[in-house]
Write a structure and sequence with these properties.
By secondary structure, this protein is mostly helical. The chain has helices at about 5-20, 30-50, 50-65, 75-90, 105-115, 120-170, 175-225, 230-240, 245-255. The chain is built from nine helices and no strands.
């Protein structure tokens, strides 16, 4: 689980709740009309912006991956592929059949190599699966960013509606309070939905998108080297380009030692 996402959301909620409770109670900050204009308006705008299929794919996938840490880092992937290359070089591709591979995408490629599929088929199939996955993840971050962009705007819409209703009922003081609450709470809800939830999630998904693109490209290159039965040391050296600079330096120090 990605603890930074969970901790960030918990910290944001804790700050807002603390400020609310220091000056009153939660019921003061609850208003049905403000909820309707923010969530109903944002949902309607999202439906207009995106096809339903993209929403059905993107929203659940985005929520899943924003709380999920990748099981293997780039450095660990290089080590794992080099290990598999050593097995393939010693006993042949069939020796990979019984190997437990932690990464699902790498496991697919290893199975293709063990089954003796053509190199062009392996590359085309894995690249297609990579692009499909990245497209769906990109849809998720775009949808959350769109919601984050329009939530404050609908907060302003709610504020304007509340102010219009308030000025239209100036002769009835009992209605001024509820209409003012709609005006202020709509803006508050819009700011919270955008800045604590949707925009941070969109930014986190954008980072994960880049990370997954790098990792899956690394895996495809590594699987093609397994298919060609390259020397494990050559495999490791060729895949080092995907490893962050500081980790490459650590590997060089270990190799020297």
């Amino acid at each position: 689980m990605d603890l930074t996402t969970a901790l960030g959301l918990a910290a944001g909620a804790a700050v807002v709740l603390t400020l609310i409770l220091l000056g009153g109670d939660l019921r003061t900050f609850y208003d049905v009309h403000a909820i309707i204009v923010i969530f109903g308006g944002s949902f309607a705008a999202t439906l207009i912006r995106f096809p339903l299929s993209s929403i059905l794919h993107g929203v659940p996938m985005g929520m899943k991956y924003v709380f999920t840490m990748r099981r293997m880092t780039q450095r660990e992937l290089v080590d794992e592929i080099a290990r598999l290359a050593e097995i393939a070089r010693k006993v042949g591709p069939l020796g990979l059949e019984k190997e437990e591979v932690p990464d699902e995408f790498l496991a697919i490629g290893v199975r293709y190599v063990a089954d003796g599929y053509d190199a062009d088929f392996i590359r085309e199939t894995m690249e297609r699966e990579r692009e499909t996955f990245l497209t769906h993840l990109d849809e998720g971050q775009k949808i959350y960013r769109a919601i984050g962009d329009c939530a404050p705007a609908f907060g302003m819409v709610g504020t304007l509606i509340g102010m219009v209703q308030m000025f239209a009922n100036m002769t009835d003081p009992s209605k001024l309070g509820p209409f003012m609450a709609v005006a202020l709470l709509a803006t508050l809800y819009g700011a919270l939905v955008a800045n604590i939830l949707c925009l941070p999630i969109a930014d986190k998904l954008a980072l994960k998108l880049h990370d997954e693109e790098t990792n899956r490209t690394l895996i495809i290159d590594g699987v093609m080297m397994l298919r060609e039965s390259k020397n494990p040391q050559i495999v490791r050296e060729m895949l080092q380009a995907y490893v962050p600079e500081q980790h490459r330096a650590e590997d060089s120090e270990l190799a020297t030692a």
